[in-house]
Specification:
By secondary structure, the protein is an alpha+beta fold. It has one domain (4-358): 4-Layer Sandwich (Chorismate synthase, AroC fold), CATH 3.60.150.10. It has nine helices and 19 strands. The strands form six sheets. The chain has a five-stranded antiparallel β-sheet, with helices on one face. A five-stranded antiparallel β-sheet has the order 9-8-10-17-12. Strand 1 (4-5) and strand 2 (10-15) form a beta hairpin. The model has no long low-confidence stretch (mean pLDDT 95). The structure holds flavin mononucleotide. Flavin mononucleotide binds next to helix 9. Residues 56, 105-106, 122, 125-127, 240-242, 300, 302-304, 327-328, 331, 334-335, 338 line the site of flavin mononucleotide. InterPro entries: Chorismate_synth, Chorismate_synth_AroC_sf, Chorismate_synthase_CS. One of its GO terms (molecular function) is chorismate synthase activity. Homotetramer. Pfam families: Chorismate_synt (PF01264).
Length: 363
């Protein structure tokens, strides 16, 4: 229940923030894929805490161990089990949270639903859970790139009220990784970093928007009804901690246009059906149309802030909480590889479904 994602390329994540470790079991990975721990580690390093001055200082190497599913450097087609041990736990930072609910975090709802919870760092609600998603997503990304040259690029497009100008070309990975905030526009990135440092010094936090673009997708991924490509992407993105909004293509902005302004005209180009604009964001009728996939995910300001806030105890008493512990003043820079991983998981799963239905039989 609730800990698995996907249909043919299926993952189950496990583990808590301050338990022994976190990880993922991947079912359905094709056999014979060349794979090393180092390739997966590269993606985990983009997600890990302590990587820059604007993220949580928790010191975790997030060193990956592959426990199963790999033999002589290639996948075997059997379940892959990937593990990252927790090393820098300081559960005493969370003593107050045993009794007091952090406003806008998961404490109250978990406590009420289950009658008990692991208050050390949020337990399962901690973003440490996303390590398993990023590890599995690294494998999905590799398969997608080998299969059809699919490239997935997420980046921070907005922090608080600082937004980068819309960009026509596909940003390179080097541009995204060039600054600690992962915004490919260097001047905007500087302003974002300054804002994050400013709110952090006030014991406060800010949110923002991650944009994601995918090129090299074939026409045909997705379903016309419930499992529409954008519906599955929306679920993937809204399943991330702190995400609050999802839009594909023109999104909410599209409501300001008329149909005549919003439609993407078709044109024949180099023997292929293309569109001259992309307000659809690469999806029409729930199915990829071969244009660039484009979607945006909004993340709220980090819930745990170091200022005193009004709250309630588990015994129902009004009280105040000034949180301690190590927190991200803005989750956006670390959310980038997580968004890419979830996109890869959705796209590979739909690629496998599409292949199974449309390419298996000789009629
Ligand atoms: C990369 C990343 C890092 C996060 N770091 C923190 C953090 O340091 N402190 C915190 O309170 N929340 C953090 N969060 C968000 C919480 O996990 C999330 O707000 C909480 O689970 C409640 O879920 P909700 O905000 O979706 O309702 C982070 C989220 C992401 C994606």
């Amino acid at each position: 229940m609730g800990n698995s994602f996907g249909t043919l390329f299926r993952i189950t994540t496990w583990g808590e923030s301050h338990g022994a470790g976190v990880g993922v079991v991947i079912d359905g990975c094709p056999p014979n894929l060349p794979l090393t721990a180092a390739e997966i580690q590269a993606e985990l390093d983009r997600r890990r805490p302590g990587q820059s001055a604007i993220v949580t200082p928790r010191k975790e190497a997030d060193a990956l161990e592959i426990l199963s599913g790999l033999y002589e450097g290639r996948t075997t087609g059997t379940p892959l089990s990937l593990l990252v041990r927790n090393t820098d736990q300081r559960p005493s930072s969370y003593d107050e949270m045993v009794e007091k609910f952090r406003p806008s975090h998961a404490d109250y709802t978990y406590q009420t639903k289950y009658g008990r919870r692991d208050p050390r760092g949020g337990g399962r609600s901690s973003a440490r859970e996303t390590i398993g998603r990023v590890a599995a997503g690294a494998i999905a990304k590799k398969i997608l790139s080998l299969t059809g040259g699919v490239e997935i690029r997420a980046y921070v497009a907005q922090v608080h009220d600082i937004a980068m100008a819309a960009r026509a070309d596909f940003p390179s990975l080097a541009e995204v990784e060039a600054t600690a905030v992962r915004c490919p526009d260097a001047a905007t990135a500087e302003r974002m970093i300054a804002r994050i440092k400013e709110v952090r010094s006030q014991g406060d936090s800010v949110g923002g928007v991650v944009e994601c673009r995918v090129r090299g997708l074939p026409v045909g991924l997705g379903e016309p009804v419930f499992d529409r490509l954008e519906a599955d992407l929306a679920k993937a993105m809204l399943s991330l901690p702190a995400s609050k909004g999802f839009e594909v293509g023109s999104g909410f902005g599209g409501v300001q246009l008329k149909g005549s302004e919003h439609n993407d005209p078709f044109v024949m180009r180099e023997g292929r059906v293309r569109t001259t604009s992309n307000r659809s964001g690469g999806v029409q009728g729930g199915i990829s149309n071969g244009e660039e996939l484009f979607f945006r995910t909004a993340f709220k300001p980090t819930a745990t802030i170091l200022q005193p806030q009004q709250t309630v105890t588990i015994r129902g008493e009004n009280t105040e909480l000034a949180a301690r512990g190590r927190h991200d003043p803005c989750v956006l820079p670390r959310a980038v590889p997580i968004v890419e991983a979830m996109a890869a998981l959705v796209l590979l799963d739909h690629w496998m479904r599409h292949s199974a239905q449309n390419r298996t039989f000789p009629f």
